[in-house]
Amino acid sequence: MNGRSKRQVFFISDGTGLTASSYGRSLLAQFRDITFETHTIPFVDNLDRAQTAAAKIREAQLRTKTRAIVFSTLVKEEIQRVIEETGAFVIDLFNAFIGPLEKELGAKSAHTLGHSRDVFGDARYQRRIEAIEFALSHDDGVRVRDYDRAELIVIGVSRCGKTPTCLYLAMNFSLKACNYPLTGKELEREALPAPLAPWREKLVGLTIDPKVLSEIRRKRRDSDDYASLPVCRREVKAAERIFQYNAIPVFDSTATSIEELAGNILKYYRRKHGNGNNGG
To answer: For residues 138 and 146, is the Cβ–Cβ distance under 8 A?
Structure first.
């Protein structure tokens, strides 16, 4: 396939869909010359919802005339079967690991929906779910009035990796992390934007190489006023000036996986606040 190829990708789960999305995106990231249009379909926990999800997959395949790729963490076999009958390329992340584990352990798995919460205990599970919901509902500068509840606020220019970093911190470490994009006139001055000013101690900054940022943005929206290299250089430089002026710790997402980036931020957070939240 050439650099102009595009594929439809679905992350399907009987839960939030974040596990399917996390694993799926990590795998897709290895194919840099292909553009992926992703769709997350969570809470597919009965046959009616499975049929609705299957209809969306079939519609996408009919519209694009290409086979969709599906990453699934569905537990129930009858629900998984509905998805497989779409003819999509389905990667069953759940059974890919359960089968070998059953063989190694010499025991059958429970195959129970949501059974993982019993492993962690209700309190830890609930804390993780709350962190995930917080990250999702406070993405991209939404609900700034709730920043008093945030444990960490990730800031940076558009498409530098803020959202996946916050979701990874929530999913794996139960950290209530949200993100705020630096845009427009906010990049023209060194002072923090008004919604961030009271929370400087919670802020961490993300930076990125302008050339890489330009490539990422062109896949998202190929317009010169958003994705050109001069625009990316100007925005990254302005964001770094804000970080320096306000003594905000900075992490580079250019050649760093989300796992490593989140891990580095967590180390900083724990040094600053003690061990903090160990929900992961």
So the answer is: yes
